[in-house]
Design brief:
The complex is a heterodimer of chains A (123) and B (107). Chain A is mostly beta strands. Chain A contains no helices and 11 strands. Chain A has strands spanning 3-7, 10-12, 18-25, 34-39, 45-51, 58-60, 68-73, 78-83, 92-99, 110-113, 117-121. In chain A, strands 2, 4, 5, 6, 9, 10 and 11 form a 7-stranded mixed β-sheet that branches. In chain A, strands 1-3-8-7 form a 4-stranded antiparallel β-sheet, with no helix packed on it. In chain B, 0% of the residues lie in helices and 49% in strands. The chains are: A mainly beta (123), B mainly beta (107).
C-alpha cells in the first residue's frame, strides 16, 4: 500500500523557516517523480514544486521561487521542502504527492496524496 | 508558464442534471490534462487523465473531452455524492498548474 506521511508543519513567524518532510513507503520511491501541493484555508489547490526521480530536474511555482527548495533522499525514501522567508500567504496545508506511474519521457497525473501538514505563518 | 482557467467558479444544479465544467490552457498541452474531485475535508481524487480516460473505479457518469487548449468535464446525471470542488491540471513538462476550481452544489 502506498503511504505518504508528511511532517514538520507548525506555527512560524513571518520571515522564518520550516523544513517539511514526507516519508514514503509501499513503492519504489527512487523510481517516481514527486511534488508538493498546498491548499490555503478555504482556497483551491496550488502546485508548489516538482522533483524528478533522481533529483536532476526541479520546478517551482513563481510564488515560491527563490524561497523554497525541494529535495529528496532516495536512500531514506524521503522528500523534503525547505521553506525560507515565509509569508502569511504561505499559510496552507502542504501535501506530498506522487505521480500515478513512471516511464522515461512520459508524464503522469497525481494519484497518491499524503494527508498533509499545516503550516501557519503568523506573528 | 502555462495558466489554467476554469469556468464557472461555482454552479448549482438539480439531481439528474447534466453538468459541464470547462478548462482552458493558455498554450497547447496536447491531452496532458487531468481532472480531480475534492470533497470537503478530503484529499483530491483523480477522476480523469489524458483528457478523456476515466480512472479505475470512477462512475461512468463522469466524462472528459478536449485537446490542445480547451477541455471539458461532464457529469451526465448529477448525484448528491458528486457535491465537491473539481480541479483541472496540466501535467506535461514544467509546472503542474491547477485551475482555480469549480464548486458543484445541489440545488
Amino acid at each position: 500500500e502506498v503511504q505518504l506521511v508528511e511532517s514538520g508543519g507548525g506555527l512560524v513567524q513571518p520571515g522564518g523557516s520550516l523544513r517539511l518532510s514526507c516519508a514514503a513507503s509501499g513503492f519504489t520511491f527512487s523510481s517516481y517523480e514527486m511534488n508538493w501541493v498546498r491548499q490555503a484555508p478555504g482556497k483551491g489547490l496550488e502546485w508548489v514544486s516538482y522533483i524528478s526521480s533522481r533529483g536532476t530536474t526541479i520546478y517551482y511555482a513563481d510564488s515560491v521561487k527563490g524561497r523554497f527548495t525541494i529535495s529528496r533522499d532516495n536512500a531514506k525514501n524521503s522528500l523534503y521542502l525547505q521553506m525560507n522567508s515565509l509569508r502569511a500567504e504561505d499559510t496552507a496545508v502542504y501535501y506530498c504527492v506522487r505521480d500515478a506511474a513512471y516511464a522515461l519521457g512520459s508524464y503522469f497525473p497525481f494519484e497518491y496524496w499524503g494527508q498533509g501538514t499545516l503550516v501557519t505563518v503568523s506573528s | 508558464d502555462i495558466q489554467m482557467t476554469q469556468s464557472p467558479s461555482s454552479l448549482s444544479a438539480s439531481v439528474g442534471d447534466r453538468v459541464t465544467i470547462t478548462c482552458r490552457a493558455s498554450q497547447g498541452i496536447s491531452n496532458y490534462l487531468a481532472w480531480y474531485q475534492q470533497k470537503p475535508g478530503k484529499v483530491p481524487k483523480l477522476l480523469i487523465y489524458a483528457a478523456s480516460t476515466l480512472q479505475s473505479g470512477v462512475p461512468s457518469r463522469f466524462s472528459g473531452s478536449g485537446s490542445g487548449t480547451d477541455f471539458t468535464l461532464t457529469i451526465s446525471s448529477l448525484q448528491p455524492e458528486d457535491v465537491a470542488t473539481y480541479y483541472c491540471q496540466k501535467y506535461n513538462s514544467g509546472p503542474r498548474t491547477f485551475g482555480q476550481g469549480t464548486k458543484v452544489e445541489i440545488k
